[in-house]
Amino acid sequence: MEKETEAAETPVPETYAAAEVTATAPVTSALRPRSALRGRSARSGGRNMRTPRERGEFDQVTIDARRVARVMAGGRRFNFSLVVVIGDRKGRVGVGLGKGVDTALAIDKATRDAKKHLFTVHRTASGSIPHDVAAKYASSTVEIIPSEGRGLVAGSAVRTVLDLAGVTDVVTKIHTRSKNKLTIARATVEALRKLRAK
């Protein structure tokens, strides 16, 4: 008899009491397992929880990448040389060159170099240029002619530079046999620097 009275007087733990009270009620978030609270992220390892990367002020395009080998006493040593064009498509553009032992380092250097050489292009209200212009850099000569309603008619590195500068309605011509994209891009930059607002 003493054992039965002791069992009757033993207090019920709070967790069991809460479970009995909410047995008839719908399951709340406090009683759900942790995996159910997270939903898909638990199955996918939390990949959906990442916030999207913020887009930078400038768009960036790599127009040329070269692997350069130096012959050393122990064998060949490789470096990378990259040409990067950056621009905001609103009139600002820059061309940079970067060299490094791997591509990530070379791209970082080229981007910093391009930001140092940023300049603003004089454009008309329609996005074209005010007048004809031509420039020579090393062996590359580039000519840019405004042409209303034609869009951007250009090729090679000239198109990349003009596109990132936000220039439209122009026709371009590259007067050279050289396929060196760095010299073509820098000739385009020299031509754009010569522009004067009317």
Report on this model:
With 198 residues, the protein is an alpha+beta fold. It has 3 domains: 10-49, no CATH class; 59-119, Double Stranded RNA Binding Domain; 123-193, Ribosomal Protein S5, domain 2 (2-Layer Sandwich), CATH 3.30.230.10. Helix content is 31%, strand content 29%. The protein is built from 7 helices and 8 strands; from the N terminus they run H-H-H-H-E-E-E-H-E-E-E-E-H-E-H. The protein has helices at 2-9, 14-21, 34-38, 40-43, 103-116, 156-165, 181-193, and strands at 59-72, 75-87, 92-100, 119-120, 133-137, 140-146, 152-153, 170-174. A 4-stranded antiparallel beta sheet has the order 1-2-3-4. The longest helix has 14 residues, at 103-116. It is globular, with a radius of gyration of 32 Å.
Outline of this structure?
By secondary structure, the chain is an alpha+beta fold.
The biggest sheet, with number of strands, parallel, antiparallel or mixed sense and barrel status, is: 4 strands, antiparallel
Estimated radius of gyration? 32 Å
How much helix, percentage-wise, in residues?
25-40%
Q: Let me know the number of strands.
A: 8
Low-confidence runs of at least 5 consecutive residues: 15-25
Shape: globular
Number of folding domains?
3
Strand content range: 25-35%
User: At CATH's second level, what is the architecture of the largest domain?
Assistant: 2-Layer Sandwich
- Tell me the distance between the termini: 110 Å
Q: What is the typical, i.e. mean, pLDDT? A: 82
Number of helices, where a helix is a run of at least 4 consecutive DSSP H or I residues = 7
User: Which fold name fills CATH's third level, the topology of the largest domain?
Assistant: Ribosomal Protein S5, domain 2
